[in-house]
């Protein structure tokens, strides 16, 4: 049971972080999603997390 909780906690945190990005994608992000669409929910969530982190991180 501890292993299941340990696995679900990071997934939950990443899902909430991905939800913060909203639908305001740049033109390049929309083109990438059209030309090379995510091949599943994990890749889609990964892209959303990457975009959310890039928006939060200062340049």
Explain what the structure shows.
- Residues 48-59 have a biased composition (Basic and acidic residues).
- Residues 1-21 form the signal peptide.
- The protein has helices at residues 2-19, 27-35, 41-56.
- The chain is an all-alpha fold and 59 residues long.
- It has one domain (1-56).
- Helix 1 crosses helix 3.
The main β sheet shows up as: none
Write down the overall geometry.
Answer: flat
- Mean model confidence by pLDDT: 77
Structural class: mainly alpha
Low-confidence stretches: none
Number of separate structural domains = 1
Question: Can you give me a brief rundown of this structure?
Answer:
By secondary structure, the chain is mainly α. Helix content is 73%, strand content 0%. Residues 1-21 form the signal peptide.
Helices and strands in order, then pairings?
Elements: H1 2-19, H2 27-35, H3 41-56
Helix pairs in contact: 1-3
Protein name: Argininosuccinate lyase
Keywords: Signal
Organism: Muricoccus nepalensis
What distinguishing features does this structure have?
flat; 59 residues
